[in-house]
Design brief:
Strand order of the largest sheet of chain B: 6-7-8-3-9-10
Distance between the termini of chain A: 12 Å
Order of helices and strands of chain A: HHHHHHHHEEEHHHHEHHHHH
Mean pLDDT of chain A: 87
CATH topology of the largest domain in chain B: Rossmann fold
Strand content of chain B: 15-25%
Radius of gyration of chain B: 20 Å
Number of helices of chain B: 10
CATH superfamily of the largest domain in chain B: P-loop containing nucleotide triphosphate hydrolases
Helix content of chain A: over 70%
Helix content of chain B: 25-40%
Oligomer: heterodimer
Low-confidence stretches of chain B: none
CATH class of the largest domain in chain B: Alpha Beta
Radius of gyration of chain A: 21 Å
Low-confidence stretches of chain A: none
Number of strands of chain B: 10
Mean pLDDT of chain B: 89
Largest sheet of chain B: 6 strands, mixed
Order of helices and strands of chain B: EEEHEEHEHHHEHEHEEHHH
Chain lengths: 357, 267
């Protein structure tokens, strides 16, 4: 029997409310809240490079959580997540440019709009599964990419679209330091949203559909609706992430939202851990930091004078691509449950030390 | 004694997969408050019958009425609202969920929070609702004596426990009629006795009507109010347990002999 709970001895819960917390123990909750508060002071200390990395992690992690709800929790697959991400970015820019909607409203609006589009492209999921669904969502990726290129009224075509900065109560969040707070708030908000979803009715229904759809149906779960809804929620997250991306850069162009991006999102959740809210965040951090660390390493080797400097720096971009591929393969072989599972095992090791189990 | 209220009536139900006739003109009814057993040799169509009632299969003809409502054409997930619950012959738990979550899924059609209100946990009343249903689920957990495993992953439990969790999940649906497909298959004597006890309690204390498929004749004859026998998709007998035990057709069906009398009757 594998107990899913990792509470320390003596930590008894006497009410059902205390037994259904998001965080397993009050220590974990305390540490999390403390680190969020500590992060609030980060712009005062850290330089722009680290803030950019954090902002990048934030909007990608939001989208990755969406994909994890679809792939990890509901057991469906999508190869079009990058396109939905892009759709959110364009939609938010379009709302602000065409209808003069304030940015802080246009971001959730873009999320809802992307949700509708995601559900439209998720329609095949009502009938098909597995590989066939992968191909159907691949079609979604190409259709939406083509739409970006052609629909000039929406995306500005080849020129791209300008996206205003977020402004609230007369304050404009246009620098790295100020946008950091927008990113932090969105990240925390969307992750709380996701955690709550997974401990309430519809989240359980998603997992039920994944684990045994026949008996889920007998339990009163409408399969078609939940398969669609899962696409909807996942696209909602992608849309929010994309919109943040757009308003951060100030400019959206269609080139970035390719199949490669969709695959990268898949890589994030595989590495982080399928079916884990925390895993989506860990995987994103890993994928974002991997090229940075590699760059540092290559720089170090080049600096040591062991190899000719020029050739090594030239091949850096290849190294990055290869490293992502290699890491996915290694994770699939050695840790298919991802970083979230590995983290649990590390905790279990300390909990049971010096016994093995 | 006043005539008992019919909860479920099946009339002239036939089901065919291509040329294979799984069920042919089956008629029966189940009264409110009964334990009704379906027995028969392997491949007789018992599970097919249950699948027709729960909505996995749509019969080719006939009618199935539950609480006076025609159920034919209704989707399986709509039937749980009407008060129908079931367990499966081959375990069908949500393997990666905890036992508690498995049972909470059974409350799905009774819960109201959704993808928009659920995430607003503290503000939309979702928390209150979840906790109320948690209380109800804990009653079921207590009743079935699985409180020690409620946080375990369902897929890692032993067979007997998994069967019990599946029963708990079906009970969580708050059904008026519960369909049990071989609840005691693969269990040892002690587990069987426990399970029989639970089924009787469900029937008597929780007021559920039970339809049960079971191969253990001792159990079937011991706890059923009425028994129906299927063979090759046809009903060959129905009645009180003692009548069934004495029935010539039934004996022949189980011994595999040619039943000339029956063939003449049905021809």
């Amino acid at each position: 029997m594998i107990a899913l709970s990792m509470r320390p001895c003596g930590d008894f819960r006497t009410t059902y409310k205390a037994d259904t917390q998001i965080f397993e123990t009050s220590t974990i909750r305390g540490v999390t809240i403390a680190s969020i508060i500590a992060l609030c002071f980060a712009p005062l200390v850290l330089d722009a490079y680290y803030l950019t990395l954090f902002i990048q992690i934030s909007y990608l992690a939001i989208a990755a959580l969406g994909l994890n709800i679809l792939v990890g929790f509901t057991g469906q697959i999508s190869l079009g997540h990058g396109a939905f991400f892009g759709f959110g970015a364009f939609a938010s820019a379009w709302f602000t440019n065409t209808f003069a909607v304030p940015v802080w409203i246009s971001i959730p609006l873009a999320g809802c709009f992307t949700m509708a589009v995601g559900m439209l492209f998720g329609l095949p999921a009502a009938r098909i599964k597995g590989l066939y669904l992968a191909i159907a969502t691949l079609a979604a990726q190409f259709i939406i990419e083509d739409f970006f290129a052609r629909a000039e009224w929406f995306s500005g075509g080849a020129y791209g679209a300008a996206a205003e900065s977020v402004s609230l109560f007369g304050h404009t969040f246009d620098s790295d330091e100020s946008f950091f707070y927008v990113a932090l708030f969105s990240l925390v908000f969307m992750y709380i949203w996701g955690s709550n979803l997974m401990r309430s009715r519809d989240g359980r229904a998603f997992v039920a559909v994944r684990d045994h759809y026949l008996s889920a149906e007998i339990m009163g779960i409408n399969l078609t609706w939940y398969r669609l809804l899962s696409f909807g929620v996942s696209s909602f997250y992608a849309g929010i992430g994309g919109a943040l991306y757009g308003h951060y850069l100030g400019f959206v162009s269609a080139e970035g939202f390719t199949l490669m991006m969709s695959v990268q999102f898949l890589a994030m959740i595989i590495i982080g851990g399928l079916g884990s809210v925390q895993g989506a965040l860990l995987g994103t951090i890993f994928i974002v930091l991997l090229p940075e660390v590699l760059e540092g390493l290559v720089g170090m080797i080049a600096g040591s004078g062991l190899v000719e400097q020029g050739s090594l720096m030239e091949s850096l971009s290849y190294f990055k691509e290869m490293a992502i591929g290699l890491v996915i393969i290694l994770f699939l072989i050695f840790e298919p449950d991802g970083l979230a599972h590995r983290w649990k095992q590390i905790k279990a090791y300390w909990k049971y030390y010096p016994f093995a189990y | 004694m006043s005539s008992p209220e019919k909860l479920l009536s099946i009339s002239k139900v036939s089901l065919a997969f291509g040329g294979v006739k799984a069920l042919t003109d089956v008629n029966f009814h189940v009264n409110k408050g009964e334990i009704f057993s379906i027995i028969g040799p392997n491949g007789a169509g018992k599970t097919s019958m249950l699948n027709c009632i729960s909505g996995r299969y749509q019969p080719n003809q006939g009618s199935i009425t539950f609480k006076g409502k025609e159920m034919l054409g209704m989707k399986p997930n709509e039937r749980s609202d009407l008060g129908l619950g079931r367990t499966f012959q081959n375990l069908a738990l949500f393997g990666h969920m905890s036992v508690l979550d498995n049972i909470m899924v059974g409350r799905h059609h009774l819960l109201k929070n959704n993808f928009a209100t659920g995430p607003l946990y503290w503000f939309s009343g979702a928390q209150k609702e979840e906790l109320e249903h948690r209380r109800a689920v804990e009653d079921i957990i207590d009743f079935l004596e699985i409180s020690h495993i409620r946080k375990s992953q369902a897929g890692t439990l032993s067979y007997g426990l998994r069967k019990r969790v599946e029963l708990a999940r079906a009970v969580a649906l708050k059904p008026d009629l519960i369909l049990l497909d071989e609840p005691m298959a693969g269990m040892n004597q002690e587990e069987k006795e426990d399970m029989a006890r639970y089924i009787l309690d469900l029937n008597e204390e929780w007021g559920m009507t039970v339809i049960m498929i079971e191969h253990d004749m001792g159990v079937v004859m011991g706890i059923s109010n009425r028994v129906m026998v299927l063979d090759f998709g046809r009903k060959i007998a129905e009645g009180l347990p003692d009548e069934i035990m004495a029935n010539e057709h039934v004996k022949k069906a189980y011994l595999g002999e040619e039943d000339e009398l029956l063939m003449e009757e049905t021809a």
